[in-house]
Every structure is written in structure tokens, then in C-alpha cells.
């Protein structure tokens, strides 16, 4: 699993080590209780390999916070790493060191384990690559069921693996024409000896100078077969007949097309034979290289006429390391938990165009990080979602909407000072808080800058992901709850008294509805406000702190106090008609496809027939368009003039959205 | 007017003609026209399909038969009889040389026709690059009531201008013959044929022609080496040998045509087929890459180099990575894990010979075709695979490799079949269309 991609920067990587000292990269190793090291296949089998400097991958699990750290770095760093391990860890007996790439039989199963893990746990992990689209990436929603799928791993050769369940996979085929063929033949045909220089070369070439096209044979298209004139009839066909010199760029391009098309064709034949339509591509040939993602995508589209989409993974390069880790951690049963990507600690996807942002790419080529937080509870879909597979929490995709992206990035940058101030204020008793807050500011600003250039770095960019990134960065510098000293302020639904007209006004319909039979059970996602009324109420609040949102534990205290004052609530609590449940989220926004399993159970058991989602983050930035299978209320006051304007209203406009599913939809 | 005779009212009736060589005497030429207007019964298609089988229908001067005979004579195209397949790399030409020409016919034969016939049949090489594959010649063939030899000629598509010039010099156009042509070049060079040689092309679909040609040739080859063969014991090199195969009832059939590129067809009956897929990694890729990697310039040269090389120095095998078989996934140690994989490493690049590179190129292209073919066969649920195309010409290495690969990876389910006239079927199919051209 060596990653020759990015390795050409080996010569530059030494100066990188000055700007990014190993101490920071490996800072997490110190607290680690478990390692997994993934050493590339080319390294092992090809010790004298001089051209590619393979990457090492390290995964570490922190003892206390249950966070996974995966680091990829070039072998210029391996000594630093080993020194670090020697200095800090050698005498610690609890550490388990796992290495893939040693036991070859394990390699594939690690890869598959890693793949299953990221597909299940990381939203927007998989994407379709569209070269000519605005962003280049179309991220896929996490699916309730990831199986079965086909994984086409393009290393030096190609392995085609059918994955049917967590433990069941089969190598159904493969091909010897793979990344090694591109690299080996490329090195023979051109003066370029490094893998990504060959790719660079290819991206500048014209394959039509080397390949024999249908139109070179037919003079045009082969109409009766629907073969267009530009189709390659014979790869390298012109170099057999034309007695001339061919440019290196052209030959590299022709080679790239030949290999990508061939792999795509075989993948399609296997997908068809096994009746699979989800095909993920990985391996060093793919690893973040826009050129190969494009040619593979093109090939798949051509051979399946669009029936199968080529899918790629954001964390493809980590699969082996993740799998190795999971294997080593089997006694802890990591699959029983849900995990989340930590945006603060992960370096994100590199730029689409290698030329667009060379700095960024050089960084990724040097090392790459992925951090995953283990969440306390298992996350599942809200059972009341009309169609879980098509549910998209976010209202606006900022990856697609450039105007909105500009605005929100600006907005978050503007708000940074305020957040820093509040963070310091929340820890007045700690003198170094200011310093940490400053570090937070730098880190978050850098994230915002990265997102400006690469909005796709962490999947689709949304207001939610911007908020979450901020929370993660705050946590990173030990500001778990900058609002804690503000106390919990309870508001009533004061907006009901705000002057009409409202932006979205279904209040009258709602009042009408209240005259009808009472709801059996209402599920209420709260932010910082509380509303209690009749029937049974399930109050779902955040499991962890985010912004000034009320957390479950805070809500517990508040509810007790209110109950002491209000006999209605007291009775309701006593009779368990009012219960408090964690949502499983630590975000100011709400992803209904990742909710606490307990909440889902309660919702199902109590026959919940009304969902109230409240607040900007939960009802506007997310879930505004969410379709539920029961009645729902989405309530918010638009506290942002830009957004209000965009929605056609003014600041402090009220959204009161009452939705009743049509009969047919409500049935399931 | 009618001249050369013929007594066979049956369709095609190759066998009938064979038995009764008195044919030409039956009808005497009546006029001074060239011996070219007689007709055979039925269509070319029927000729190939029903040819040898229908003895009982032959003859008879009964009235209906007679009438048919007359009409056939009328529809028989004038000489010369050509079929052409203009591919990306090679032009394939089949020429029917009538051997039953009577003295009178000879006398009447126009000069240009005689000159063409003489030129083609008295040489085995034309210019520097044109070749007549003498070993493939089909003598004593009865076509549309005429007995003669079918000649197989090829030259590089690049030389087409020289060919057209020759056609012009020999006044080919004065014969008012239709030139049946298939392959992409029939379309690409149609205007050149018209302007340079004043020739009108009848353009035909190359896959239609390919299938017609295969079925026809297989049906008419009765003597000599078998047209269709396979390799017995393909996985045991020491016992591996050619065996004749009877292609009489071939359907369903996967037909893999390896020219510059590759087309894979599923054939369900003589006129029901579909193109399953194709790949651009074909004969052109082998030769193109060999030219670039070794500096060779011809297919024969490339093959010769390949025969002396060792691909395992270039390719990375499963055993190079796993030390032996990769048992869990059923991969034998000798299987190629990465074609040209060893060439990622500088020292290995420096230590391989051109012969090794040529061999690796051949093995890579051949195995890939085998692999795609096998997947198509599985998807289409077809067990018989016929490989044709000029990539296989004098290329026993590739044929044995294909036979091996198909047998090994399908665990004996798939059979690789080969045809002796490898690359000429398209041209033959084009020739057969000549009858329908008038």
C-alpha cells in the first residue's frame, strides 16, 4: 500500500519538517495505547526500489479520549517516528504494535475492514468525480446498508474484491495491468521515472497523436455500432505505423488512457457478472490523483453507459491502516461504536488540480492525518424519516453554491474574534487560556482558508460542517464549552408574539390541527429554548456541548428545577410523559441520520407522531427540506440578515413550517 | 449473352461442381463478351450455408431449374472477383482466380483483366510490402458455378495509395466491376478510390462480413489442414498440440477478432449476432509498444524478438510478491501480478533485453485479451470462443497462451478455437457480397 503519489516531493520534505515539527505530528503517540503501522507493498517486495519513496501509515488510539489518529508520511519521516516510539514507548508493555504489509494474507482483509469502517462512519466519505463540474466532487450520503459492493484496488496490479458483509469478502478477479504497468512502461517510454511525474506528464499530453482512433480507421464514426470517431480503436496504434518521434507527454497520456480504460472495462464486466452497481476504486494509482480519477470515471461511464458510477473514497489511503488497527483492537470491539471524523485533526482532501495550489499538495504529499472520535453511543437513522436513503440534512450545499460559500466563510471569519473572546472568558481561572485561544484562532482561520480553496476537503461544505469544524477546533485546544460560564438561559417561544407577516407562516393550520385529536407523542429537538405542552414529550438534546445549546445534563437540571415550580411538569415527569433523551449529537445542527440509538428506540416505542425541530441550526441550516413520515413543525427566527434576504425576508423573520405527510407517504 | 456454363441449379453446389467437371461444356459462349456474366444460384449467403449439403437439388434441366439457371447467370458478377477489408494496419484482399477459363474466354478476356490476373497469380510478393499468403490459397474452389483458386493477399494500409495507383495504371476502372470493401478504410478511403482510381466501392459492414467469411470458409475447406483447430492439453506444454475441430454447428459462439484493436461478438445464428464489447489493447498496441520499446519496425520482427525473450524478467509475478502461490485467493505463483511491474525499478530496467520487453508486451496484450474474453463468455454464457484476426498470424505464442489462459482460469469450461485463415474473413465476407451487388 505504498503511496508513490506525492512522493516526488521527498526532496522538498526536509524543509517541511522545519515548519511542521515531528513533535506536533506525533504528539498523539505519547498517549497511545495501540499502534498500527502499514508499510507499503512496493517497499517490501521491491527493497531496491529507488524511484518511489513509499509512505508509511501509522494509526494510534489514544487511551483516554478514544480518538483514532492516522498519519501518513513519507519515509523521510520514518526515522523520526521510530525514534519517537523508541524514546517514549518501548518500555510500555501495554502497547500493541500492529503492522500490515507484513502478513500478506491480512492485507486484503485490513483493506476491506478499513473500507467498511469509513463507509459506515464518515459522512460524505464516498464521492463521484466529475472533472467539469464546479467542485469536481459529488459526495454520496452515508447509506444505511453499505453492502454489497465491489472494491477495485489498483496497486501495482489490480484486485477486484466483492464485499458482501462485514466478514464476507471474496477476490473475484483482477488484472496484471495496473499502476505498476503505468509506472514501469512509463519509465521505459519516457525519461520520467517517478510515478506522479508520469501522471503530470500524462496530463499535458495528447493521446490522439499516439493512439489510433476510430476516425483514423473510418475517417469518421463507425455509425452502425454507435462508435464515435474519437474512440480509441487501438492504443499506441499510431506508433506502429508512423515512423516518427513521439512526445513523452503524448505517450504517457496514451498509456494512462490504455490502463484506465482497461481497468474500467474489467471492473464493469465483473460488476455485471455479479450484479453489483456500487464500485469503489482505490490503491496508489487512484489515491487523490485527479487525472486517474477522471480517466477511470470516463471509462466506467463509457462501458456501462452510465449505469454504474465510479466511486472514490476521501480516506482511501488510510484503509489499510484503519483495518490493521481495527484488527488489533478487536477485543475492544470497535465496530459496536459509532465514530466521527474530527475536522480539527484531519488534513482533508487535497486540491483537484495539482497546479492550483501547489503548497497544499506538497503538504499532503508529506504527511496526511485523519482523526476519528469514538462517539459514546451508536448512531442510527431517525425512524420517522420518510426515505432515509435520500435524506440530506443540509439545506444548502456550499460546495455547489459559490455565493453562499463566500458569504458563510466570510461570516465565520468575522465571528472568530467573538468566539475567541468567549473562549477565554469561559476559562477565566486558567492563565494560559488566552494563549490556547490564540492557537484556536490560528487553526480555525487556517481551516477556513483551506476550505476557501478546497471546499470539498471534508466532504460537502455546509454551514453545519463549518460550525462543527469550529467546535472541533475549540475542543482541540481544550475549550469544550466556551458558553459554560454564561449559564443556561431559557427563552420562551417569544417569536409567537413577533409581528406578522412571517416568512413561512403555517401557524393557523397548526392551531387548527390542535383542535383535532391530541398527538400521542412529540419529539422535540431543542436548542436553547424549551417548550412544554400536553401529550407525551420526548426532549432530545445534545449529548455534548455545542455553541450555547443546552446539553442533556443541563436540561436534566433545568427540568428538575422547573418541575419543582410547575405541578404540570412535575406530574409529567413523574408519569414519564415528559422524558429527556440524548440526541447523540454535539453539533449546533442536526443530522437525522446519525442519532442516538436509544432515542430511536424511544421514538419507535412511544409511537411518536409529531416532530418539532427548532432553531436556526436544526430547522434552517439543516432539515429545512427534510421529509418526515409524521407531522412536523420547523420553527426558527432568522437571526441573520443575509440568510433572511436570501429566503426573501428580513432579519428576525419567523419561520413556522407545519408539514403533514400525504397519506400514502405517512404509511411507511 | 452467356458463356461459361454451368449445370448446377442448386444453391452454391460446390460439391456438385466438383463431381461434374463437365460443367463448362454445357453451355457454350455465344458471343464475344468477357466471361463474366453467368450467375450462380441463390445468394452468397445461401451458397456458404447450404453448399455442400444439397446434392439432391442439383441439376435438372427441368423448366423451373432452367429458369433459375438463367436468372443466376444474369446475376453472376463480371470478373474480376475481389473482396477487400481495409483495416487500421493492414489491407486484406481476396481474389478469386477462375481456373476453368476456356480458350474462347481467354481470347475474349480484355487485356486489363488478363494483366491483373497474371500480376496477382504469378507473384507472391507485391512491391516491398505486399504479400500473397500462398499457404492459405484455396484451390479447386467452386464459387457461383466457377471453379478456381481463392488467393489471400495483404499489404499495409499505408500502401493503399500505391495500390490505387496500380489500379489506375492497369485500367482497373475500365472493367466496370464493383469493388466490395469492408473495414474502416472502405469509408475513409472511398473518395480516394473514386478520385485516384475511378473506382466505385460497395461499402460493407465489417462485422457482417467477418461472420459471413468465417462461416463460408469453414464450410468450403474440405481437404488439407483443418480450418478450425484447438490446442489439446493447453496446460501441459509438452503434450500441447493442434487438433481439428468441427465447427459445423457452432452456435452460440464468441468471436474475438484481434486486429489493430479487438472486437468481441456473440454469434447466435448466421445472421443474429451482437458486438459485446471491444478493447483498444490489440495487435496495434503490441506492435506499437514493441516499436517504441525495441526499435523494431515490423510485426514479424517483433514476434521474432518476443520468441527469444523472457517476460518474467519484466513482469512482476505473484511469487515475486508472495514468495509462492497466493493460496487464499487461488493465485498461482507463476501468474503475473503486475505487467511491467519490475520496470518500476531502475536496476531491473537496466538489466532487461529488448527481447524480454517484446515478450512481455506480447504476454501482456494476449493475457488481457484472454481475460476480457473470459469475462464476456461468462456474462454471455457461451463456452465456445473463436479467435481470429491478423494478430494471431504466425503467432503460436499468443494462441497457446490464449488456449492456456482460457482453459486454466475457466477450469476447463472454455475452449479456445482458432481458424487458419485468421485475418481474411472480413475480405471473404466482402467478396461474397459481390453477388448481391448487381
TrEMBL record, chain A:
SUPFAM superfamilies: Actin-like ATPase domain, AF1104-like
Reactions listed under catalytic activity: (R)-4'-phospho-S-sulfopantetheine + H2O = (R)-S-sulfopantetheine + phosphate
GO BP annotation list: coenzyme A biosynthetic process
Damage-control phosphatase ARMT1-like metal-binding domain residues: 498-649
One GO cellular component term noted in the UniProt record for this chain: cytosol
UniProt cofactor(s): Mn(2+); Ni(2+)
MF (Gene Ontology): ATP binding; hydrolase activity; metal ion binding; pantothenate kinase activity
UniProt xrefs under InterPro entries: ARMT-1-like_metal-bd_sf, ARMT1-like_metal-bd, At2g17340_3_helix_bundle, ATPase_NBD, Type_II_PanK
UniProt keyword annotations, A-Z: ATP-binding, Coenzyme A biosynthesis, Hydrolase, Manganese, Metal-binding, Nickel, Nitration, Nucleotide-binding
Complex and partners: Homodimer. Interacts with PKM.
NCBIfam families, A to Z: panK_eukar (TIGR00555)
Protein function: Phosphatase which shows a preference for 4'-phosphopantetheine and its oxidatively damaged forms (sulfonate or S-sulfonate), providing strong indirect evidence that the phosphatase activity pre-empts damage in the coenzyme A (CoA) pathway. Hydrolyzing excess 4'-phosphopantetheine could constitute a directed overflow mechanism to prevent its oxidation to the S-sulfonate, sulfonate, or other forms. Hydrolyzing 4'-phosphopantetheine sulfonate or S-sulfonate would forestall their conversion to inactive forms of CoA and acyl carrier protein.
PANTHER family, per database record: 4'-PHOSPHOPANTETHEINE PHOSPHATASE, PANTOTHENATE KINASE
Protein name in the entry: 4'-phosphopantetheine phosphatase
From TrEMBL, chain B:
Stretches assigned to coiled coil: none
Catalytic activity from the UniProt record: (R)-pantothenate + ATP = (R)-4'-phosphopantothenate + ADP + H(+)
Domain of life the protein comes from: Eukaryota
Chief localization: cytoplasm
Compartments where located: Cytoplasm
A GO cellular component annotation in the UniProt record: nucleus
Sequence segments annotated as region (Disordered): 1-72
KW Nuclease (keyword) present: no
Keyword field: ATP-binding, Coenzyme A biosynthesis, Cytoplasm, Kinase, Nucleotide-binding, Phosphoprotein, Transferase
Pfam family, one: Fumble
EC number: 2.7.1.33
Root EC class: transferase
Family stated for the protein in its record: Belongs to the type II pantothenate kinase family.
Protein name (database record): pantothenate kinase
Gene responsible for this protein: PANK2
Amino acid at each position: 500500500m505504498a503511496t508513490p503519489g506525492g512522493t516526488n516531493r521527498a526532496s522538498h520534505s526536509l524543509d517541511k519538517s522545519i515548519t511542521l515539527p515531528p513533535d506536533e505530528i506525533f504528539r498523539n503517540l505519547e498517549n497511545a495505547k495501540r499502534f498500527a503501522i502499514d508499510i507499503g507493498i512496493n517497499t517490501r517486495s521491491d527493497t531496491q526500489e529507488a524511484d518511489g519513496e513509499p509512505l508509511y501509515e501509522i494509526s494510534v488510539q489514544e487511551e483516554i479520549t478514544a480518538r483514532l489518529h492516522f498519519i501518513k508520511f513519507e519515509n523521510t519521516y520514518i526515522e523520526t517516528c521510530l525514534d519517537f516510539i523508541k524514546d517514549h514507548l518501548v518500555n510500555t508493555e501495554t502497547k500493541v504494535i500492529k503492522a500490515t504489509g507484513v502478513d500478506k494474507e491480512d492485507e486484503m482483509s485490513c483493506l476491506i475492514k478499513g473500507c467498511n469502517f469509513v463507509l459506515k462512519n464518515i459522512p460524505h466519505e464516498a464521492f463521484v468525480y466529475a472533472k467539469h463540474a464546479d467542485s469536481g466532487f459529488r459526495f454520496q450520503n452515508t447509506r444505511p446498508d453499505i453492502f454489497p459492493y465491489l472494491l477495485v484496488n489498483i496497486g501495482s496490479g489490480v484486485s477486484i474484491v466483492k464485499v458482501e458483509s462485514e466478514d464476507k469478502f471474496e477476490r473475484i478477479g483482477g488484472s496484471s495491468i495496473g499502476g505498476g504497468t503505468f509506472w514501469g512502461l512509463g519509465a521505459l517510454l519516457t525519461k520520467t521515472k517517478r510515478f506522479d511525474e508520469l501522471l503530470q506528464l500524462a496530463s499535458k499530453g495528447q493521446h490522439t497523436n499516439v493512439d489510433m482512433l476510430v476516425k483514423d480507421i473510418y475517417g469518421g464514426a463507425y455509425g452502425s455500432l454507435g462508435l464515435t470517431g474519437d474512440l480509441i480503436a487501438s492504443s499506441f496504434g499510431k506508433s506502429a505505423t508512423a515512423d516518427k518521434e513521439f512526445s513523452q507527454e503524448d505517450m504517457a497520456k496514451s498509456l494512462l488512457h490504455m490502463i484506465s480504460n482497461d481497468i474500467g472495462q474489467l471492473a464493469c464486466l465483473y460488476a455485471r457478472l455479479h450484479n453489483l452497481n456500487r464500485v469503489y476504486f482505490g490503491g496508489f494509482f487512484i489515491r487523490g490523483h485527479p487525472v486517474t480519477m477522471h480517466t477511470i470515471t470516463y471509462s466506467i461511464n463509457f462501458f456501462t453507459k452510465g449505469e454504474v458510477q465510479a466511486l472514490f473514497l476521501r480516506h482511501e489511503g488510510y484503509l489499510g491502516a484503519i483495518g490493521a488497527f481495527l484488527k488489533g483492537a478487536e477485543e475492544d470491539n470497535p465496530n459496536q461504536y459509532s465514530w466521527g471524523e474530527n475536522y480539527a485533526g484531519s488534513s482533508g482532501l487535497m486540491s483537484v488540480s495539482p497546479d492550483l495550489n501547489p503548497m497544499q499538495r506538497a503538504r499532503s504529499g508529506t504527511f496526511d492525518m485523519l482523526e476519528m472520535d469514538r462517539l459514546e453511543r451508536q448512531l442510527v437513522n431517525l425512524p420517522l424519516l420518510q426515505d432515509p436513503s435520500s435524506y440530506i440534512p443540509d439545506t444548502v450545499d456550499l460546495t455547489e453554491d459559490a455565493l453562499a460559500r463566500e458569504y458563510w466563510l466570510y461570516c465565520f471569519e468575522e465571528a472568530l474574534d467573538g468566539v475567541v473572546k468567549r473562549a477565554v472568558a469561559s476559562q477565566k481561572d486558567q492563565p494560559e487560556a488566552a494563549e490556547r485561544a490564540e492557537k484556536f484562532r490560528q487553526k480555525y482561520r487556517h481551516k477556513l482558508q483551506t476550505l476557501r480553496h478546497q471546499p470539498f476537503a471534508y466532504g460537502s461544505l455546509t454551514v453545519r460542517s463549518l460550525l462543527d469544524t469550529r467546535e472541533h477546533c475549540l475542543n482541540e485546544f481544550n475549550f469544550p464549552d466556551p458558553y459554560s460560564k454564561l449559564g443556561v438561559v431559557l427563552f420562551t417561544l417569544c417569536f409567537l408574539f413577533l409581528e406578522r407577516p412571517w416568512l413561512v407562516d403555517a401557524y393557523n393550520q397548526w392551531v387548527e390541527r390542535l383542535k383535532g385529536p391530541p398527538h400521542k407523542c412529540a419529539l422535540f429537538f431543542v436548542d436553547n429554548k424549551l417548550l412544554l405542552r400536553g401529550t407525551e414529550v420526548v426532549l432530545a438534546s445534545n449529548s455534548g456541548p455545542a455553541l450555547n445549546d443546552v446539553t442533556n445534563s443541563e436540561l436534566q437540571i433545568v427540568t428538575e428545577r422547573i418541575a419543582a415550580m410547575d405541578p404540570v411538569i412535575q406530574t409529567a415527569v413523574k408519569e414519564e410523559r415528559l422524558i429527556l433523551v440524548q440526541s447523540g449529537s454535539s453539533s449546533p445542527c442536526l443530522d437525522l441520520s446519525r442519532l442516538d440509538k436509544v432515542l430511536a428506540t424511544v421514538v419507535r416505542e412511544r409511537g411518536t407522531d409529531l416532530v418539532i425541530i427548532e432553531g436556526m441550526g436544526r430547522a434552517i441550516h439543516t432539515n429545512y427540506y427534510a421529509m418526515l413520515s409524521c407531522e412536523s413543525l420547523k420553527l426558527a427566527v432568522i437571526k441573520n440578515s443575509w440568510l433572511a434576504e436570501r429566503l426573501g425576508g428580513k432579519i428576525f423573520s419567523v419561520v413556522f413550517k407545519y408539514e403533514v405527510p400525504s397519506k400514502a407517504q405517512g404509511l411507511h | 449473352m452467356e458463356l461459361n456454363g454451368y449445370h448446377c441449379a442448386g444453391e452454391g453446389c460446390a460439391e456438385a461442381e466438383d463431381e461434374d467437371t463437365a460443367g463448362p461444356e454445357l453451355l457454350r459462349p455465344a458471343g464475344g463478351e468477357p466471361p463474366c456474366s453467368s450467375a450462380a444460384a441463390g445468394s452468397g449467403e445461401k451458397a456458404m450455408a447450404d453448399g455442400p449439403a444439397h446434392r439432391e437439388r442439383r441439376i435438372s434441366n427441368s423448366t423451373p431449374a432452367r429458369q433459375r439457371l438463367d436468372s443466376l447467370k444474369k446475376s453472376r458478377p463480371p470478373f474480376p472477383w475481389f473482396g477487400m477489408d481495409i483495416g487500421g494496419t493492414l489491407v486484406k484482399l481476396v481474389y478469386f482466380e477462375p481456373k476453368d477459363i476456356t480458350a474462347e474466354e481467354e481470347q475474349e478476356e480484355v487485356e486489363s483483366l488478363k494483366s491483373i490476373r497474371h500480376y496477382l497469380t504469378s507473384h507472391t510478393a507485391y512491391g516491398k510490402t505486399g504479400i500473397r499468403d500462398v499457404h492459405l490459397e484455396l484451390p479447386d474452389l467452386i464459387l457461383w458455378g466457377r471453379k478456381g483458386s481463392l488467393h489471400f493477399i495483404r499489404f499495409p494500409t499505408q500502401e493503399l495509395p500505391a495500390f490505387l495507383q496500380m489500379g489506375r495504371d492497369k485500367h482497373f476502372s475500365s472493367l466496370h466491376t464493383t469493388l466490395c470493401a469492408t473495414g474502416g478504410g472502405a469509408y475513409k478511403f472511398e473518395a480516394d478510390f473514386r478520385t485516384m482510381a475511378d473506382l466505385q466501392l460497395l461499402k460493407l459492414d465489417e462485422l457482417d462480413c467477418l461472420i459471413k467469411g468465417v462461416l463460408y470458409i469453414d464450410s468450403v475447406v474440405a481437404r488439407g489442414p483443418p480450418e478450425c483447430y484447438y490446442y489439446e492439453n493447453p496446460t501441459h506444454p509438452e503434450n500441447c498440440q493442434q487438433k481439428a475441430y468441427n465447427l459445423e454447428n457452432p452456435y452460440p459462439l464468441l468471436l474475438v477478432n484481434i486486429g489493430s484493436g479487438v472486437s468481441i461478438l456473440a454469434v447466435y445464428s448466421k445472421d443474429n449476432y451482437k458486438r459485446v464489447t471491444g478493447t483498444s489493447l490489440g495487435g496495434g498496441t503490441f506492435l506499437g509498444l514493441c516499436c517504441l520499446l525495441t526499435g523494431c519496425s515490423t510485426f514479424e520482427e517483433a514476434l521474432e524478438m518476443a520468441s527469444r525473450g523472457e517476460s518474467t524478467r519484466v513482469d512482476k509475478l505473484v511469487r515475486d510478491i508472495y514468495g509462492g502461490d497466493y493460496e487464499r485467493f487461488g493465485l498461482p505463483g507463476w501468474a503475473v501480478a503486475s505487467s511491467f511491474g519490475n520496470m518500476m525499478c531502475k536496476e531491473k530496467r537496466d538489466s532487461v533485453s529488448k527481447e524480454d520487453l517484446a515478450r512481455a508486451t506480447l504476454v501482456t496484450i494476449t493475457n488481457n485479451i484472454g481475460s476480457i474474453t473470459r469475462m464476456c463468455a461468462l456474462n454471455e454464457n457461451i463456452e465456445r470462443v473463436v479467435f481470429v484476426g491478423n494478430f494471431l498470424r504466425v503467432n503460436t505464442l499468443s494462441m497457446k497462451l490464449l488456449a492456456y489462459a482460457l482453459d486454466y482460469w475457466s477450469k476447463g469450461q472454455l475452449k479456445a478455437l482458432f481458424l487458419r485463415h485468421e485475418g481474411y474473413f472480413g475480405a471473404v465476407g466482402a467478396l461474397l457480397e459481390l453477388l448481391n451487388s448487381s
